[in-house]
Amino acid sequence: MHLYKYIIFIISLCISLEISAHGLKFYSTDHPIAQRTSYSVFVHERPVFKDYFDIEFNMALYPTVEIGYITRIKSGDPTKIFNLFFDVRGDDILFRLNQEGKSVLISMPVNRDEMTKDHWFKVKIAFDLKNDEIILEIHNKKMTCEGVSLPDEFRPEIVFGKSDHIIDVPSIAINQLKVGNTKSYVFALNETKGEFVYDQEGRLCGKVDNPIWLINEAYHWHKEACFSSNTEAGANYNINNNEIYYFNRDSIFTYNTKSKEITARAFAERCPVKLSLARSFIDDAHDKLYAYEVYHDPPDDGPTIASLDLTTLTWNVESYQQLSMQLHHHDSYYDPEQNLYTIFGGFGNMYYSNKFYTLNTTDKRWEVLDSLSGDVIYPRYFSTIGYLKNNHCIYVFGGMGNESGEQIVGRRYFYDFYKVDIENKQVQKLWEISDDEINTAPARGMVILNDSCFYTLRYPESVSNSFLKLYRFSVKDGSYQILGDSIPILSDKITTNAHLYYNEHQSRLYVTVQESKDDVSSSLTVYSLSFPPVTLEEYAGIPTGSSRIPTMWILVIITLAVATTIVAVIVKIKHKPENKESVPQTILPTTKTEMISETAQPNSIFLFGDFAVFSKNKRDITYMFTARLKQMFCLILQYSDAEGISSKRLSDLIWPDKSKDKVKNSRGVAINHLRKILNELDGIELVYEKGCFKIVTNSEMYCDYLKCMEIISTNTVNKYRQQFLNIIHRGKFIQFFDDPVFDYFKQDVEYKLENVIQHQIEETFSARNYQTTVSLTEAAFNIDPLNEMALSYNLKSQFILKRENEAITTYQKFITEYKKTTGENYPHPFRNYWR
């Protein structure tokens, strides 16, 4: 990313903190009374208004509960309480402004579809104190009630949702709340958590019980549904019907993204097309789903296109035409006005394609879109395309391929963007960027809503277990932002794919992720994200409390200061000589399987994390240790670096309440059992000398505790850093016992570890070995979950490694533990660490 992009990015970030709003959603009447949402706008000090004031906000409806009270406005006079009530009645929504306990002042029916087509609609209640009038505006309708006895001065107590005895709370959300006249209080309602609400000037004004902060839905992808098929299957989204389809040759799953209902239906007759890639598109005007294969491999003369009537679930063969080659990972779009389906790119027969093929649903034939002039789009697959209705242009972004189109030449990743004018058959390359995100490919389904920006998913498709990330690119110059957290995807097989959709009516992005382990069976997972999505900085860096940024001018000043700093840092980095010595990055086991593999070695005992013992034959014999035998072994080992532990001391600690005779017998039985178990290992022996028990080991035997103490005592952490990290990364020392008997043992070990780990954190961070720094900080959290030094180095390292999601997870876990331990909120906001 060029320097100017960094500056633009930071300026846009600061501006977005002012103007972005995602709102407050309410727990409604379908929840217990104590769990319903109540939002008091002014709880500390209520302003006084003279002559006039209004309450204005945006509102969105949700289908769960469609009746209830939106807001109440109280004055000092109990006879002058006003409330706004609504009731969904078929195609209309009836809003009623009431003077509570007296009469309906305004009754306003509004067409539901017209009002909710953009999800959010405007509501305004104006109090003309001078003329004793109340004006109600909903969407584009306005009504006035005259002759209302209003006070000359109004100190409003404004409550949304549950209020006193008013407990009928509808399923709604509000945002961009503004209260005032010439002086207004503006509430973006973009908090991420908590009960306190601040206005745009950073003043603590309100409080909300049981909030749902919608900005979380604009950052965290929500898993909606999962399906699976044992045979080849395809998926598509009928946005107008809010239905996602997952189909194979025998049946179809339907998931309604609005009602959340799932249905499964079998076809009367099988799909006539032999599915392989199982590509499809929706003709919503005729309520049809078209399934197609551009090429049969192995060769087959059967149908290649068939349409499914989504009402009757009957199939109809549409075409037998095949193209000259398979087109894996081509992308597509459907133009309903021209009944035209267009595909671009793809891979097959060891060639990449750069052709556009169009299919008219009237004549059902593929035609090459030729005679294109202008810039050349090199052959590729894994590109994404979108269509902008207002200029009838196709847009193409990214992919993998090469100039010749031959696979044998090798492939490279493209980060370029083209505009294809369909009417004039003109191709224009708008830009190409040199991306820091090495080897990432876009998923299907570019979302382009206007000529200023587009949205696409990208991921490193060559990595088995990778993650999809959402990007917003500028159409003008290719500058971009990463939005939301990530979606996991297993990309081992070529039939694995992901597709991005946008539902304008729901103001929501949807993603279907279809994964396969054998290119035959597959699973489909549906995810969604509130629109517009937010960046990590917007989500995690939103100021709270007294530290909020008070005005836009201060934001601009800070922006310029930060931009200047970045200029200086980047210039310094550019002129800094390269360090030709590569910094080794520590690799730790990240999955349970890998951890077991690391642990499973012959003649080994592990006391960090889960207790584990492996015999001379590498057999797991952990099960042979009862709780009493674990306790005895750890106690004897604790004292083995000296003369050992006496029989009496051992007996007093393990059997404090037993008589001497019983203790002697129990101790003898337990010692014999422990000896027999240790005989399963080479290099370890339980001995009894001078009235004391001790554990004696040699080089054949491995114990993580003994090895860790050896590394620390000989000051060889740098030499054996990988082994040291493997040990402490397993977990807390003797975490399997809470017995006070081991308190001193644990404290002694943790004290030694803490000093070493802290030094190693600082040293590895200075050496730019950030992955190792992260691993060390995680080990530090095992010792002290509230280690602020570890938190600081962890977050800084995660940001440098571009692991924003992991950083926010670490921070959230830390502040949760802090709250649980201290009973107070952690005083340092996330943005402090980011900056």
Keywords summarizing the entry:
single chain; eight-stranded antiparallel sheet; alpha+beta; Neuraminidase; Jelly Rolls; globular; 5 domains; 835 residues; transmembrane; Kelch-typ_b-propeller; AfsR-DnrI-RedD_regulator; disordered N terminus
Provide a compact summary of the structure.
By secondary structure, the protein is an alpha+beta fold.
How would you sum up this structure, described in words?
It is built from 15 helices and 53 strands. The protein has 5 domains: 1-22 and 546-573; 23-198 and 205-213, Jelly Rolls (Sandwich), CATH 2.60.120.200; 325-491, Kelch-type beta propeller (Neuraminidase, 6 Propeller); 588-708, Orthogonal Bundle (Arc Repressor Mutant, subunit A); 738-835, Serine Threonine Protein Phosphatase 5, Tetratricopeptide repeat. Mean pLDDT is 86; it is low at 1-21 and 541-598. Helices cover 23% and strands 35% of the residues. With 835 residues, the protein is of the alpha+beta class. Keywords: Membrane, Transmembrane, Transmembrane helix. InterPro entries: AfsR-DnrI-RedD_regulator, Kelch-typ_b-propeller.
